[in-house]
């Protein structure tokens, strides 16, 4: 199990200084002119960000932060009730739900769009048709499209796409997302909304965020949302009630 | 196990709208004038924030985000190597390390300061002396003071305290932190730095953040730092090397 | 952060042999005469076990394995629904609920009993009375006693205590548990059952299991129970229904 | 998000009785004639087990329990050092490493074997050749075969296969595992060991354990091993040393 010796470029210390990558934490980053979102994304992506990119990431993080009483927050509240001395365990339990079925679909959408991005014109359209045909033949959901509640359109996606249109940078992912949406609508004969996860995937794709890291961005946003759920538990505890309600709702049957 | 019926004030939906508390997500929060930090802290604390408070939270989050190769990031990298298909599991593993020994000390510091805050003058000083005496008699570390590396002063704390001095709001926690530091220095006959965790606890105490929620803020900041560690693993994988190095360093002995 | 060089006594390998502590895995432990429970407890406690001890641990593990639809299994089922590709995440989420409020009380009970164990006769009784008085004055529950459902007696405890009576070894914890129960009944003027957690704590105390490790034994037992819950999800999925039921039961209120 | 009303068959209570499925816990399962392994596997699989099957599961669980200082136990020890008040968090962190790269390969191996099991004679052999060809063309490892240390043969697999040969039940998975091993040896022109994970997958396949549940069995076994690691930390703490060693081994480089 040999491996060449790895290094880390994230952080180093001296007696009286701390560095995040090549920046002096106190002098360069805590001077009041940089926000947490800018610093963390630059830290994760290892590059500086434009003003527009900072706005886009702020918008994505706000959008992905909160979804109400979902499996993720139900898990967090249940664990918190059992181990309130250990808040990080409740948050960790909730984050473990950022998997293939919900927020984690962002990666799958990004991988689909990545098939369209290098193509142009009729080639891109043919590939979009192939993607739709594949999913229809397997009778599976196309990640990034459709929402069980928001019809005809997810209001968050409209706002996110507007923001993408304002970008001075490349829009290959954004255009591919819209094209695929058109092909879907045509194929199904009805309009299917681009959902918020799909819009976030396209915006991040155009900023060169690797698909794996997109799920990480979702995890950060959800961690904030889950802290709000635990904070609400302090004032309006629901854990015991959830237990009771679920217990009553699922009867015993051999 | 009866409990009065709880409610939630965090999120609600209609067909074409999403609300975070009493705010329309798209119209009120995604209009480009609000950042993620402002929105998430307002969501967690259920109140609006001043410009100065937003700056303070940004500074705290940046400060707590990254600490290099610590037990938390070692755990995250080790889990990522074993289950790369499951990034949220690696982040969750790393967050489980936000416990009593490191970042979680923020709560203990806040609880100590809360003993001083309601007192004034000589009463406050006597209570500070009592706190020091208690810890010395139990030979335990006083949370919020001392750092294994940064001497004589933690550069982050100096910056954080400066920021606190600029506040127009109450400074009871901040003043208590400084007073307790003076009593510690006098008692031990040498200067012990206020560490970054102590400074963050005082700043948040003066903004009425409940001690339990302080640990939650630390968890959010760390989740961003851990995503940077996993992002670095994609380019410079270290998990297998960590395994090898640890295995070699800890020999078998019956 | 210096520390003397640690070692490990758990496992070593050669090309064609594996050792667990000083035992050859294949020749000594997989010869068909040793069960998993015996091997794992010997591995954890680093000592051989008597036949009676093996029976006691089997009984404890069976007793702690399953508790139906609790916060722990609700968390596991919720996470499984969101990330079915990642079964270990669902189990981990459920185990995070083994905290201070339920199974983790085993440690607190063991620590109470440890105050009685070194005493005899009237001294032990006086200390038991002191323990009851402390908890009554703080209006807190005495860990190991009482059950919200099983009255007058928890049927599992009766069986566990019978098993303890059959032991040829020391019974200081068992006798302390019964004495404390008598003092509680007298003080409250009514019978309060010794619960299963209390009985397990006493049986393990008499086998010299450290209190911290008792929680670990509970974690192992629960991991088996949680796998049964996930296995049931494969045939009778409940995660989406739990989401729906909880969402409907907790209305929005500002 | 509608779903037909689910039920649970795992556990029910009355005032003075507890049932696991259709068995009375105290009278039927805690009568001293049933061990934890038998009870938990019957609970998970929802069927009774033969004596031979109980022996096989005991052997599998012992085999998968312990692997020394691996990413899983390094994560658990690192988290334990940071949050010792929260043992379940350390175990959960370690279990999160039961993913695609190590123990979780058991599922992938079972799915490969499931392609051979329905076939016979030359058809089975042709499918085995197809499996080998697929993996060679993708230059990926065939799960269940090869071991970085144990050559020419993994001693655990030899013992596990012997046990499988003693079965009176079906051996379709076992025979498929051996056949695929022969085809691999022939294709590569050298002997590649059947590893312990492969042998466990085949034994469980022949007992009708669903592939998803196999990973669950591995999780239970690992939870026991991880408790032994934490128990060792109580006597020979290594967490701080691991931190130091890893920190020293991975230098900063921009």
From TrEMBL, chains A, B, C, D:
GO CC list: cytosol
Biological pathway: Carbohydrate metabolism; tricarboxylic acid cycle; isocitrate from oxaloacetate: step 1/2
EC number, UniProt record: 2.3.3.16
GO MF term list: citrate synthase activity; lyase activity
CDD domains: CCL_ACL-C
Keywords noted in UniProt: Lyase, Transferase
Recorded superkingdom: Bacteria
Oxidoreductase recorded as keyword: no
Broad enzyme group: transferase
Gene Ontology process terms (BP): carbohydrate metabolic process; tricarboxylic acid cycle
Cited InterPro entries: Citrate_synth-like_lrg_a-sub, Citrate_synth-like_sm_a-sub, Citrate_synthase, Citrate_synthase_sf
Family as reported in the entry's similarity comment: Belongs to the citrate synthase family.
Protein name: citrate synthase (unknown stereospecificity)
Organism lineage string: Bacteria, Pseudomonadati, Pseudomonadota, Alphaproteobacteria, Hyphomicrobiales
């Amino acid at each position: 199990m040999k491996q060449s010796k790895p290094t880390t470029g994230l952080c180093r210390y001296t007696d009286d200084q701390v560095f995040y990558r090549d920046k002096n934490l106190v002098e360069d980053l805590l001077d009041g002119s940089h926000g947490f979102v800018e610093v963390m994304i630059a830290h994760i992506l290892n590059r500086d960000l434009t003003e527009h990119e900072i706005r886009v990431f702020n918008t994505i993080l706000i959008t992905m932060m909160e979804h109400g009483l979902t499996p993720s927050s139900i898990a967090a509240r249940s664990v918190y009730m059992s181990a309130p001395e250990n808040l990080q365990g409740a948050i960790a339990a909730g984050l473990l739900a950022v998997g293939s079925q919900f927020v984690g679909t962002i990666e799958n959408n990004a991988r689909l769009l990545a098939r369209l991005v290098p193509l142009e014109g009729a080639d891109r359209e043919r590939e979009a048709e192939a993607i739709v045909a594949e999913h229809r033949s397997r009778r599976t959901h196309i990640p990034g499209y459709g929402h069980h509640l928001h019809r005809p359109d997810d209001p968050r996606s409209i706002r996110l796409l507007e923001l993408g249109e304002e970008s001075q940078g490349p829009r290959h992912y954004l255009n591919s997302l819209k094209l695929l949406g058109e092909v879907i609508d045509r194929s199904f004969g009805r309009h299917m909304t681009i959902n918020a996860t799909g819009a976030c995937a396209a915006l991040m794709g155009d900023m060169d965020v690797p698909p794996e890291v997109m799920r990480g961005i979702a995890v950060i946003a959800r961690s904030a949302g889950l802290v709000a759920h635990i904070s609400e538990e302090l004032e309006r505890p629901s854990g015991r009630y959830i237990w009771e309600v679920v217990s009553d709702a699922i009867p015993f049957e051999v």
